[in-house]
Design goal:
The protein has about 260 residues and is an all-alpha fold. It is built from seven helices and no strands.
Amino acid sequence: MIVREERKRPHPWTDRKRTIPGWSVPFVALDWVFEWTAFLLSKWAFLEVLEYVGTLSILVAVFFYFHDSGNRIKQRHYQAWQVINTAQGKGGSGGRVEALQELNHDGVPLVGVDVSGAFLWGVQLGRARLLRSNFSAADARNSDFKDADLQDSDLHSANFRYSTFQNASLLRAQMDDADFEGADLSHADLSGATLDDTDLRFVSLASTNWIGIRSIRGANIFGVRNVPDGFVDWALHHGAVQMQGDEQLEKNSHQGAK
């Protein structure tokens, strides 16, 4: 609500001048002129109308800001998808980390997204819906895929070192030749997953659902942590190896290929 102050009529200049020292006359005269200006304008109703119009325009702007918020969100999502699709098949980040995180934060499904070969260090995609996504040859070290749905995804030759996949669904995922060294696969579902030649050194497998892994031939399970009962024996029986260094693993692979 606008409150207008009732201004008093200024005293005549002759009366004002008598009460001030001579040196201050120019300053007081200027102030007296402003007093008269303010007094005269306070009587002008048009200015009061302008104040109301200004307040109304603010309210209208606020209304349209919230009314149009849905379109702004759609535009933001469109731009994020444009960043992802434009960079498809290219190396580097190309703004894809921020785009993926923004879409996931807004609850947008990332089903079938193709970020193969992308540089995605530290991407935060917890609870993301990434079914049938393509992360092949991507570098996503130190990333967060906690509670993510990666069913039927292609993770072939990707680098997920020290990333977390706690409670993630990797059902039927292609994880062959990928690097999961030091990753956390606690409570993850690996049913039907292909893990041939996958680096699983020092991976945490606490309560991981490994029953039903499709293939694990050549996978390196050296130093796996929080191992479920029976996993190591089963993995070694189905072609997995336990080798600490990369050179030893590479030598073993060459010998197996002969």
